[in-house]
């Protein structure tokens, strides 16, 4: 993904790869659709990915990644299912930042 050559990323995906976004109720079926979607996604510049954390084993993994195109700044939490050494399924969440809903400063500290 870091190369922004999304077609080459299909080498690590199964032929019946599936990506789901529960927040928008959307699904991408197939490695080719995944590559074409990412290549067509409107961006202000090159996508840069910063891995915050990855945990996993032979069949499951979770990643916390920050993404930017120099204008958009986002974070994705992704749950991977791996079959025969390739990614078969991803369920991905794109949380949005928000301000605390009430004054809780006596219990919490802000992360900068």
UniProtKB/TrEMBL annotation:
InterPro entries: NTF2-like_dom_sf, SnoaL-like
Keywords from the UniProt entry: Isomerase
Pfam families: SnoaL_2
Domain of life: Bacteria
GO molecular function, one term: isomerase activity
Sequence ranges assigned to domain SnoaL-like in this UniProt record: 2-90
Name of the protein in its database record: Ketosteroid isomerase-like protein
Lineage: Bacteria, Pseudomonadati, Pseudomonadota, Betaproteobacteria, Burkholderiales
């Amino acid at each position: 993904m870091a190369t922004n050559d999304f077609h080459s990323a299909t080498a690590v995906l199964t032929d019946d790869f599936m990506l789901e976004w529960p927040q928008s109720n959307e699904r991408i079926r197939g490695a080719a659709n995944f590559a074409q979607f990412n290549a067509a996604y409107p961006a202000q510049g090159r996508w840069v990915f910063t891995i915050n954390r990855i945990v996993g084993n032979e069949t499951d993994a979770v990643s916390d990644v920050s993404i930017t195109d120099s204008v958009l700044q986002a974070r994705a939490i992704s749950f991977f299912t791996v079959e025969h050494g390739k990614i078969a399924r991803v369920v991905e969440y794109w949380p949005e930042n928000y301000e605390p809903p009430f004054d809780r400063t006596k219990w919490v500290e802000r992360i900068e």
